[in-house]
Amino acid sequence: MTCQVKICGITNIDDALMACRFGANALGFVFYEKSPRYVTPEIANSIVAKLPPFVTPVALFVDADASVITSVIGGSSRWMIQFHGAETESECLSYQRPYMKALRIKKGDDVSALVDQYPSASAMLLDAYKAGIPGGTGEVFDWSLIPKVLSKPIVLAGGLTPNNVEQAIKQVAPYAVDVSGGVELSKGTKSEPKVREFINGAKCG
């Protein structure tokens, strides 16, 4: 099965449509104000309204207030949610949208047990652990920590680039890969050649 690709940290319509043109399956929008890739609900929903069919917009939150989450997903029925904080399964379920839960993986973690805490998730995103940083570290974690069999589809994140995505797919065989900083010109602005190369590598990996 061809690996799916999520391009995260989208902040403008040009980057969104460019990623779609090269074959992105999903686009991530960051609603965490401390992130340099933060985008307002108004801008994000204006972009989502212009996306082609069959591309999934993903709204990323880190322990956000319910009012913030509803202000975003109320703008479009297309939103999937990515919870990147300490949200419980019941919190994730309460918005009645498909969701994936991010886990920051470090040595010693029982990844299978962590995944099994979210049986209602559509997928689990595995990212690198770095103390005090909820995501977007740009660092690769030890892929050998990921069990070969898990109860949910895996979205692999953390330090992926056009240079290592094919190796990541060969080693981990994830359902999807997620990239943000690895395809940027600067924080929040994507590089067209890098996006094209990353998606091509992922689809052929």
From TrEMBL:
N-(5'phosphoribosyl) anthranilate isomerase (PRAI) domain segment(s): 5-200
Molecular function via GO: phosphoribosylanthranilate isomerase activity
InterPro entries noted in UniProt: Aldolase_TIM, PRAI_dom, RibuloseP-bd_barrel, TrpF_fam
Swiss-Prot/TrEMBL catalytic activity: N-(5-phospho-beta-D-ribosyl)anthranilate = 1-(2-carboxyphenylamino)-1-deoxy-D-ribulose 5-phosphate
EC number: 5.3.1.24
Keyword field: Amino-acid biosynthesis, Aromatic amino acid biosynthesis, Isomerase, Tryptophan biosynthesis
Gene3D superfamilies: Aldolase class I (3.20.20.70)
Pathway per the UniProt entry: Amino-acid biosynthesis; L-tryptophan biosynthesis; L-tryptophan from chorismate: step 3/5
Entries under NCBIfam families matching the protein: PRK01222.1-4 (NF002298)
Family to which this protein belongs: Belongs to the TrpF family.
UniProt name for this protein: N-(5'-phosphoribosyl)anthranilate isomerase
Organism: Marinomonas primoryensis
Gene name linked to the record: trpF
